[in-house]
From TrEMBL:
Residues 17-52 are annotated as: Disordered. This is Peptidyl-prolyl cis-trans isomerase. Residues 1-15 form the signal peptide. SUPFAM superfamilies: Cyclophilin-like. It is an enzyme of class 5 (isomerase). One of its GO terms (molecular function) is peptidyl-prolyl cis-trans isomerase activity. InterPro entries: Cyclophilin-like_dom_sf (IPR029000), Cyclophilin-type_PPIase_dom (IPR002130), Cyclophilin_A-like (IPR044666). Residues 17-27 have a biased composition (Low complexity).
Amino acid sequence: MVTLGVVVAAPAAQAAVPGQAGPTAGPCQYTPTPDDPPARPVSLPPDPRHTPDRGIITVTLFTNLGLIPLALDRAQAPCTVQSFLHLTRHGFYNRTICHRLTTYPTLKVLQCGDPTGTGEGGPGYSYKDELPTNLPPAPTDPTGVRRIYGRGLLAMANAGPDTNGSQFFLVFADSVLRPNYTVFGAVRPLGLNTLDRIAAGGVAPTPDDPAPVDGAPARRTEILLAI
């Protein structure tokens, strides 16, 4: 399960084709995961010899609860933005739910990007981390390891080192995490308003937990279209 604790290109070094057995030959090395097949059919992303690493790209998530515009920063995480744009352009995120909301004191995020809605699904490939190096330290962490993922950051969820796929999270309030999650952009102000409405509904209660802090959003959130 994926858990927690975004221009014109040079000619591709290796074309991304469905059913490809090995990693792409460019610097991003998008690698098929045969034991974790794609939740929806999608090819490997293009992997040019020089991954575009400049510019801010806007992608908008049209949800049933409002718009969430995102600003993807190629300079922060070129391979991650390349993958996210590829999935967006191929409709991978359309008609998918955001399956997880957390409201812990130190972890306040909305997690999306799995077409199965279970937290288990992905695109059938993985790629390397592009970890942040400039996040402020968490003053409450005596070890000095954890960092503040600030309100509005956009980051990749993962299941361990170099296991990025399609799932991502949106930070609606400052959160404290080890810096093990690639930051690839930010939520624009209009999107923060939508996030706040989702978060205000809290986590949906279950028979075993009437007041959970981790689970499906009580206000069901569906990405109708990502463009």
